[in-house]
Design brief:
160 residues; alpha/beta; Rossmann fold; 31% strand; elongated
Length: 160
């Protein structure tokens, strides 16, 4: 893959089902801004542990989005009077809003890769890939228009 031109803004790459791939820091090192999407928190935590020297200033924020956008993706709280059957993506507990089901997704992990005197952004969105919309990406990542120059998929959609 050729390096991007030295323009004002780096080309943006979306990496679906990124897991803990080593390709994301590499794409940053050759000049791309990278947004990964992963549904499993374990993969994100493993990535953070394995790349702690290459990826700087990592910040993980649960539900970093405006409430109006959260409602479009998944509600962060469902009030109930008692424990119901399993509710996918939610944990039954007592929290800020009382007893009910709470969701910790979507969440975003923000980091950057050192490129000498500058940095390339590397963000990982923890949510279901099928819930990802341009509005969600624009509100939670550096891709403020929710659009990407390319999608890098290394066997994610072909995995069994």
């Amino acid at each position: 893959m050729a390096s991007p031109d030295t323009a004002k803004t780096a080309p943006k790459v979306l990496v679906p089902l990124c897991g803990k791939t080593i390709d994301m820091p590499y794409l940053c090192e050759v000049g791309y801004g990278v947004v990964g999407v992963e549904g499993v928190q374990r993969g994100i935590l493993d990535f953070k542990a394995e790349h702690q020297i290459r990826v700087l200033n990592s910040v993980y924020a649960s539900n970093p989005l405006p409430c109006s956008l959260l409602q479009l993706v998944v509600p962060s709280f469902l009030q109930v009077k008692g424990l119901k059957s399993k509710t996918k993506g939610f944990v039954f507990k007592t929290g800020d809003q009382g007893l009910g089901y709470y969701s910790e997704t979507p969440a975003v992990w923000r980091g950057k890769v050192n490129l000498g005197k500058r940095h390339a952004p590397l963000h990982i969105l923890q949510c279901d890939m099928f819930d990802v919309t341009p509005d969600l990406l624009a509100a939670s990542t550096f891709a403020t228009d929710g659009r990407f120059d390319l999608i890098y998929d290394r066997d994610a959609l072909a995995a069994r």
